Amino acid sequence: MIRNLIFCFKFYPKGMLRAMLWEMFHAFLLAAPSGILLAIIWELFRESPREAFIWQVIAAMGAMFILQLYVAQKAMVQSQIGVIRIATALRVAVGNKLQRLSLGYYKKRDPGELASVALQDVNNFEQIFGHSLSNLATAVFGTVVLAVFLVVLDWRLGLTLLGALLFVLPLAQFGQWLVRKYGARAIGARTDTNARLLEYFQGMPHLKSFGMIGASFGTLDDALRNLRTTSIRTEAIPGPVILTAGVVLELFFVLMVWLGLFLLSGGELKIPVMVAFLILGYRLYEPLKISMVEYGVLSYMNVSLERIISLLKAEEQSAGQDAHPSTYDVELDRVTFGYAPERNVLENVSLTARAGEMTALVGPSGSGKTTITSLIARFWDIEEGAIRIGGVDLRNMSTDTVYGIISEVFQEVYLFDGTIYENILVGNPDASPERVRWAAEKAQLTEFTDRMEGGLQTRVGEGGNRLSGGQKQRVSIARALLKDAPIVLLDEATSSLDPENEIYIQRAIQSLVKNKTVIVIAHRLSTISNADQIVVLQDKAVAEAGSHADLMSREGIYHRMWTLQDQASAWEVGAAKSGEHEDSVEAGKLH
Q1: In terms of pTM, does the model score above 0.85?
Q2: Nearest CA among 450, 474, 451 for reference residue 464
Q3: Is the CB of residue 127 less than 8 Å from the CB of residue 142?
Q4: If residue 331 lies in a helix (H) or strand (E), which one and from where to where?
Q5: pLDDT tens digits for 380-424?
Q6: Taken in order 120, 125, 130, 135, is the CA torsion positive or negative?
Q7: C-beta of residue 408 within 8 angstroms of C-beta of residue 402
Q8: Distance between CA atoms of residues 221 and 202, nearest Å
Q9: What is the rounded distance in angstroms from the CA atom of residue 413 to the CA atom of residue 581?
Q10: What is the DSSP track for 502-532?
Q11: What distance lies between CA 97 and its chain's CA centroid?
Q12: Residue closest to 565 by CA, chosen among 321, 386, 362
């Protein structure tokens, strides 16, 4: 825990040092009146108590209480400022870190988990440590000051009181272990519940259509039950350990009283000293009891800190020399890659997409088409081989350089909850309004935005839910046009659109790909018959490559795929006669 706190303090070292000094001064002032009170007790046991001296001591105590209020206010303000500054710095650091991680990092993790780290874990640190810092400083520093004073007053009784620590500290460590164990489970359950809630909201139309709302959606119901169970265990299981530690402290105070009375009866202890230990000895344990509770809470906070630090230390993609290519041929040289160990998606794949030409990737589902475009965009880093742009290895380019020369237009389009204009501007935030309008026209956006009351200033809703699929695709193409990157990656954007939208998007794509290095994932072969090069992927490798005419003349895999799609286009739904039905099925058989 201390190591993690030191890591966090680096974000605001001077401020936290100042806060700790104020807290220590405050703790000293909290303990000091007890010592002054002892002076009054000592004086009262004199044969002739000095009244003037007692009043002077009382006046000193009053002054100290006033000073204590001032210092408490300063300590609280400085502590809160320090903790808030650190929490702010952590949030910024997490945000910056997420920008530098490969997009493959996000594929391996649930979005709910990352959101939980960035929001709730940092909030855990801010809330818990902000309220615990004062109690912790009082417990540590105040206890040390008072313990030293009591040991000097009588070492036998003082050491008896401190002997409780031999039993309390192991209990505290055990309690911390329990909190860490069950706290980690509770945080994991909370993260899983967040993810399931997000899934529940996003899938609401489908869940309603299948009658799976409410408790019928079992995954969310299970997640909520698990969260309830783990939360109760996190509170209930470490609790008895903390209570046991409190009982140990009480027993050692009773032991100190017994020893004091024994010494007193033997004339080895003065009455004022015994009275002092009866008053101050019990106060010695008050901060310890508080710290026991705070220690458990801080252990829970430490689980959140470990998740934050783990994210901040996640491996980033290396930038190499940050080289910049002068040409835009894309070459895969004996590339091997898999999303999981010993489960390769690509093995020894080599191909070249020449600048100014269109290269189409075709093949059955799972053959690695999307993986290749993801590797070119450096969403992932390859395991073997090399990917080069203009002869420069991707690993020798920064991610900013790679993303700057590549545009992607995929089937799944995400729009931010803003206006159409703002979403187009994502392609180039510095673009002029005239340039944005040009991109919108080229992407066939104005065909429908000009009929909207707000035009390009129409809000699209979260994820673009106020626009149709075809409209969102055109916004995506407008972004790419505005970016004007020399390399364009296309996951055939028209495969699931109606004919009218397909026509508009085909026109938009024609504007986008002029004079670019284009790599397109093709699902319908008819859309890429004019491609300069068609690469057929199968069994994790390149099976065939060439133009449409070349591949058709070979009568290989591509020829078979083309024939099957041509037959599939003749299928009929709901034929009137059984003979027609049989003919249509026969025409659609896969050979």
Answers
A1: no
A2: 474
A3: no
A4: strand 330-340
A5: 888 789 999 999 988 888 878 888 899 888 777 888 888 999 999
A6: positive
A7: no
A8: 16
A9: 38
A10: HHHHHHHHHHHSTTSEEEEE-SSGGGGTT-S
A11: 10
A12: 362
